[in-house]
């Protein structure tokens, strides 16, 4: 069960059915149930195209402040370097920051442009090899690997198992009807007792963004509860004059921060 209630329930308003577009998704109504609504769909190749066209406004040029603030949740009590997976990583500086703390870091990214820029823009020497559905980029000066390919192909044949997953807004980039498959891929490479630090987005549901999609803490619990204990760490409330709200023309938005602990198998 979630240990902190999702605070945006009072903000949810009836769906304006005149604003529907194509593709199915879910609208969480605050109690873990969902209503059907129409939202655009896009496969992972759509993200590749965004990188090709330079439409990457979500990319940060700094380390994510949630990761910096909450790093203790994944490091405390672990006594040394961890193996950490960052799915749909783009060219995030989070990977380099985690490496600098002594961890073994693996990213997964669909765009070869993003992966190439991560290494070249940061002057990181690397080699690359083909391995099944992935091209694996390996840094030669630190413990960093990036698998370039489809995250749904992830399993321990290619990487892992991992101590930690840093899911930084990755799940909100997955179509609603693909989320169970995405969760299966993540959990297939997470050790028993492993940890997931996750951020999602929740915002006014009458406004349909292509991405990021709304994924509430209750929806995360439904997806992961069979194998993980789920806890809401924080709900970051963004004012309507924040960059995120202004860019997407939203009256409000919340960025939930969640901590998931994979359950140990009972022998």
UniProtKB/TrEMBL annotation:
One of its GO terms (cellular component) is cytoplasm. It is an enzyme of class 2 (transferase). Its EC number is 2.1.1.67. It is found in: Cytoplasm. Keywords: Cytoplasm, Methyltransferase, S-adenosyl-L-methionine, Transferase. It holds the Pfam family TPMT. PROSITE patterns: SAM_MT_TPMT. Belongs to the class I-like SAM-binding methyltransferase superfamily. TPMT family. PANTHER family: THIOPURINE S-METHYLTRANSFERASE. This is thiopurine S-methyltransferase. It comes from Geodia barretti (Barrett's horny sponge). The lineage of its organism: Eukaryota, Metazoa, Porifera, Demospongiae, Heteroscleromorpha.
């Amino acid at each position: 069960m979630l240990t902190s209630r999702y605070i945006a329930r009072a903000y949810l308003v009836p769906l304006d059915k005149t604003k529907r577009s194509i593709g199915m998704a879910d609208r969480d109504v605050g109690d873990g149930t969902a209503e059907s609504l129409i939202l655009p769909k896009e496969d992972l190749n759509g993200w590749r195209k965004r990188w090709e066209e330079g439409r990457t406004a979500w990319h940060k040029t700094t380390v994510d402040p949630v990761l910096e603030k909450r790093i203790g949740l994944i490091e405390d009590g672990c006594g040394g370097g961890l193996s950490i997976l960052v799915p749909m990583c783009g060219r995030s500086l989070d990977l380099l920051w985690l490496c600098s703390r002594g961890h073994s870091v693996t990213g997964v990214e669909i765009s070869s442009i993003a992966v190439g820029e991560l290494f070249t823009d940061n002057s990181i020497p690397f080699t690359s090899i083909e391995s099944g559905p992935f091209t694996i980029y390996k840094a030669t000066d630190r413990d960093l690997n990036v698998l370039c390919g489809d995250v749904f192909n992830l399993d321990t044949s290619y990487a892992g198992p991992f101590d930690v997953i840093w899911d930084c807004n990755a799940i909100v980039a997955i179509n609603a009807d693909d989320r169970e498959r995405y969760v299966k891929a993540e959990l297939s490479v997470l050790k028993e007792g492993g940890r997931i630090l996750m951020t999602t987005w929740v915002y006014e549901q009458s406004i349909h963004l292509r991405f990021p999609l709304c994924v509430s803490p209750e929806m995360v619990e439904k997806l992961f509860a069979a194998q993980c204990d789920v806890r809401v760490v924080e709900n970051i409330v963004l004012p309507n004059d924040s960059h995120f709200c202004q860019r997407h023309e939203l009256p409000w938005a919340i960025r939930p921060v969640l901590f998931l602990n994979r359950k140990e198998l009972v022998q």
